[in-house]
Amino acid sequence: MLKRKIQSYLEDYLKSDSNKMLIVAGARQVGKSYIIRHVGKQLFPNFVEINMAEDSYGQRIFANAKTLEDFYLNLSTVAGNQLKDKHNTLVFIDEIQAYDHLLSMVKFLKQDDRFNYIASGSQLGITLKETPTVPVGSITIKNMYPLDFEEFLWANGVGEEAIGIMESKIRRRESLSEALHNKMMDLFKKYLLVGGLPDAVNSFVERKNIVEVRDIQREIHHLYRLDAARYEQESQRKLKIQRIFEMVPSNLENKKKRVVATKIEQKKEARMSDYADEFEYLIHAGIALQVQAISQPSYPIIENSGKNLLKLYLNDVGIFTGILYETQIQPIMNDQRSVNLGSVYETVVAQELAAHGFRLCYYDNKKKGEVDFLIDDTEHLSIMPIEVKSGKNYYVHSALSNMLNINEYHIHQAFVLNNEREIYVKEGITYLPIYCIMFFKKNATRQLFLE
Prior knowledge:
This protein is an alpha/beta fold. It has 19 helices and 13 strands. The protein has helices at about 5-15, 30-45, 50-55, 70-80, 100-110, 125-130, 150-155, 160-170, 180-195, 200-205, 210-225, 235-250, 260-265, 275-285, 315-325, 330-335, 340-355, 400-405, 445-450; strands spanning about 20-25, 45-50, 90-95, 115-120, 140-145, 290-295, 310-315, 360-365, 370-375, 380-390, 415-420, 425, 430-435. The two termini are about 40 Å apart.
């Protein structure tokens, strides 16, 4: 079984007797149901699971269960003797978004307090937006993503103690030994190929077969394409959403990497604002990650309205490298000079930062240039720029240097992630190996970014 960081969060919630229902949200195939099932069965002798998506396509038992009485009646027909009392019964409502009336019922289920509940949803953001009667104060939403790099290391036999020692050295700005650096770079490159989708990771760990891994990724990518407009009724809008999703890889191969409105439908007069709902749909579906442009950064990032520009990344780097290179592993594993891995490195950094809870933004200034990512530096109440470099000239970063020279930004520290082993600080910029992105943790800023 793959070890996931969210497991301890689920255990704490299920032991807490919270008055809110936890809903684990995320794209399909990231492991939501599996980990909830694993934890639930460990903690409760009576574990009841109902998949509402399957029900909506089949018997539709819960389609009209809009009162507590109807819900309990239908639940009892499905669960039978598994329903006991609250202390020993957990009801797992999988794909709760399939019936929006169930979201509206959450408050009353918790108030009735008959059983313990937990839920999951793969298109939850979309449904919540379109369901005005959702009792927001009665739910807690926890986002789940594909395995991050640290979880991938666990799956490949690297223990928590070893990772902890490496993290301590990185905090002190101490470079790893050449042998350990090479080992970490080897695993990082394999992560670029495999990504973090549980089925792909399990296949890689068990059989090391890139063809099999790519088959899994291809199937899930096709599933995501269908999901891209699954709950949208208007056929024309469905096509636009799917078109934007299909354009993500090609956009990332362009120099600017951002979405260009005029290319979506080949309309010269098109503006980004024309597709705001479509972008939001993809992001809420969990299959694309949005990185918003900001030209005048200040802390906290959430208070910056930003520019009407954005980049979209796929939610899994393995799917992305599968699209680019199919079963060829040499472009990534052998550092071929003719291949620019810039978009791949940016995708994995976006994936890591999102999984660690960061809001994704980038710096875009007509005069000063672009910096790949901006995150909040809560230790110094300022903005922290991150530049990602896949080539040998990682020390060339004019936009980052320009940004640091703007005193009004009050930037305390900046980072350049690259392939080199040596960690050093020069002119306010810390140069780190690319795999160190796993140590950028939202709740550990004080520990990680020591001077």
